[in-house]
């Protein structure tokens, strides 16, 4: 997961082309449903989080002795950063779990637009349960491995100087998860085993980190995170085709109506 290979500019370039692709008239229909899901979840999750964050900070500050009141601002900033990080990570996981079948179809249509060849056809009644099970498999991977990463970060936090690596590890893990989450749609359309997908991304880690890092950053920004999912699906499909599968793509041809 931490080997350095691939092209670090692949992630930004793929997302840039993905943004152009989702504006294509033939693809707008497949973006509508995931966007509606994102809008509804955005208002529900954000409203709940703002309410709970206020209660959490009030509770924490009540336990802080008066002579340590100067730490209040530092504690608030630290808690805010942690909540925003968890918010961006959780928002992406929840929306993708619900919108998985629609994202799979969007990735399929984008691949057909990019290459002129659609992935193998699959009946909708088979695709929906299969993609949902795939999302649960990814979710288990994120939770089980993420728990180990959290333990490592916790252990490093008690070692002077070395503890500076803890947030770096957290960011790398989040970026890795975002790459897996979105690149998997194009990969799964070809029935690629989940382990094989991780190995493929491991062969392009710099591109995977840059792609996932930008997606994670976008998910941390309220309102912007509503639009991140379709752009990320399109960009991940570009990344999978061009950088992992090695297929040549010509944007001047692909973006024509």
Automatic annotation (TrEMBL):
Pfam families, sorted: EI24
Subcellular location: Membrane
Protein's UniProt keywords contain Cytoplasm: no
Keyword Methyltransferase (UniProt): no
Principal cellular location given in the protein's record: membrane
Membrane-crossing segments per the record: 29-50, 70-89, 139-159, 206-233
NCBIfam families for the chain: PRK04949.1 (NF003433)
The name this protein goes by in its record: Sulfate transporter CysZ
């Amino acid at each position: 997961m931490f080997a350095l290979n691939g092209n670090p500019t692949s992630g930004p370039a793929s997302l840039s082309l993905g943004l152009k692709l989702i504006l294509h008239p033939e693809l707008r229909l497949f973006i509508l449903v995931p966007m509606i899901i994102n809008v509804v979840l955005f208002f529900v999750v954000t409203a709940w989080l703002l309410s709970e964050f206020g209660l959490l900070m009030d509770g924490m500050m009540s336990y802080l002795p008066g002579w340590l009141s100067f730490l209040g601002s530092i504690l608030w900033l630290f808690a805010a950063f942690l909540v925003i990080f968890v918010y961006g990570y959780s928002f992406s996981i929840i929306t993708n779990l619900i919108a998985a079948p629609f994202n799979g179809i969007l990735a399929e249509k984008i691949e057909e637009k990019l290459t002129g060849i659609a992935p193998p056809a699959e009946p909708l009644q088979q695709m929906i349960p299969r993609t949902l099970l795939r999302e649960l498999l990814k979710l288990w991977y994120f939770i089980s491995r993420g728990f180990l990463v959290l333990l490592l970060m916790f252990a490093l936090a008690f070692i002077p100087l070395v503890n500076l690596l803890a947030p770096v590890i957290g960011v790398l893990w989040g970026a890795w998860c975002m790459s897996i989450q979105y690149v998997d749609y194009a990969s799964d359309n070809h029935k690629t085993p989940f382990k094989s997908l991780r190995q493929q991304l491991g062969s392009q880690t710099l591109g995977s980190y840059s792609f996932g890092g930008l997606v994670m950053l976008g998910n941390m920004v309220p309102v912007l995170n509503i639009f991140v999912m379709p752009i990320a699906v399109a960009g991940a499909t570009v990344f999978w085709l061009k950088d992992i599968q090695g297929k040549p793509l010509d944007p001047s041809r692909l973006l024509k109506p």
